[in-house]
Write a structure and sequence with these properties.
This protein is α+β, with helices and mostly antiparallel strands and 354 residues long. 24% of the residues lie in helices and 21% in strands.
Length: 354
């Protein structure tokens, strides 16, 4: 059993024809050009969509969604902003990913047939939200893109799960809801420890006697390193984040197995210094989970992640991620494409799609 999953069983529910698989809004689908992707670009993008004025009054920005979808044939990436800033959000994506194909689509969650089974889960953090999960700036993670393993495992398991029963591949979607925090996110809630106090505690300035999380000796190298990370983290833009995933297919056992595999897919996010990790709670009501995800509802357990922590989860894969099922754009905008090729279908070359 992965350290990211608890021992709770995944349950699969069969959907009827009345199941809702569509929100009323449009979404933005991105077909990444090979040189447009990467974690560092995503960090810059998340910084750009975090309003610098967020916010002096305590009023928070509305949540948005990013989704990684495997439809049984291809892996695609899409974003769903709120209706008021749809065009601004679209422009931001096109500016940051100039050679990728960025366009509007209907906001279907994932293809679900009558009688299909669904299973999934919701993600939480193992420890208090002040403890950072694996970050882009940590030693050993700088050049490590988790997508090579994560996306490959999702596809491999989906194909195997379907092939073992002679059925189609299991389909899946990972949904990341994110919302900019307030400017003073480091202060914590009323009468709770804040990030600065935790930093001082780890660096031996003073001791927080009632902070159960800090059992590590303050004078150890690990404590000093964690304290330094917390100091950098406090200066970063942060997001309230919810992550959930759903697997869909016509074989109950295969769907349950794939949902568990997706939930365990981000094992590389374990932070050995802080012992912070994702824990995936299998949903006991997959039907409700499917409806919640289709509506992109802001409901569930919130985590706090900075730009350096959320970007490795939500980014466009760079050229060195060699997974055949990635739905990529092969040419830069403006480059000539042979008539009759897949790239000339209008999906990539159509510029007037706003």
């Amino acid at each position: 059993m992965s350290r990211l999953s608890r021992s709770a069983e995944y349950s699969a529910a069969q959907l009827g024809i009345e199941s809702n698989n569509q929100a009323s809004d449009e979404l933005i689908r991105v077909r990444p050009f090979k040189d447009d992707g990467g974690i560092d670009t995503a960090i810059e993008w998340f910084e750009s969509v975090h309003p610098s004025h967020s916010d002096l009054s305590g009023k928070r920005s509305v949540p948005r969604a990013a989704e990684i979808v495997y439809d049984g044939e291809q892996i695609s990436f899409r974003y769903l902003p709120c209706s008021d800033d749809f065009h601004w959000f679209l422009t931001r994506l096109r500016h940051k990913y100039p050679d990728s194909d960025v366009r509007r689509e209907e906001a279907d969650l994932i293809h679900i047939d009558e009688g299909d089974y669904v299973a999934g889960g919701e993600w939480t953090l193992r420890k208090h939200r002040w403890w950072p999960i694996r970050r882009r700036d940590l030693e050993g993670f700088r050049e490590d893109d988790p997508y090579e393993t994560v996306l490959g495992d999702i596809v491999d398991d989906a194909v195997k799960a379907g092939g073992a029963t002679g059925r189609e591949s299991v389909r899946s979607v990972i949904q990341v809801m994110f919302r900019p925090t307030t400017r003073n996110w480091q202060t914590g809630r009323l009468l709770t420890t804040n990030l600065t106090e935790l930093y001082y505690h780890l660096n031996g300035v003073y001791t927080i006697h009632n902070l159960a999380e800090t059992k590590r000796e303050k004078e150890t190298a690990d404590a000093t390193e964690i304290g330094n990370v917390l100091d950098r983290r406090a200066k970063e833009k942060a997001f309230d984040v919810m992550i959930r995933h759903l697997s869909v297919g016509d074989d109950k056992k295969a769907v349950k197995h794939h949902a568990e595999a997706v939930g365990a897919s981000f094992a590389s996010y374990y932070n050995s210094k802080t012992e912070q990790a994702f824990i995936v709670e299998p949903s006991s009501s997959p039907n409700t989970l499917a409806e919640t995800m289709a509506r992109r509802e802001w409901s569930g357990e919130k985590m706090l992640l900075t730009s350096l922590e959320i970007a490795p989860i939500v980014h466009l894969p760079p050229a060195d991620i060699s997974i055949a099922q990635l739905d990529r754009r092969q040419t830069k905008r403006g480059e000539e494409v042979p008539v009759g090729s897949h790239e000339h279908s209008g999906y990539i070359t159509g510029e007037k799609d706003v």
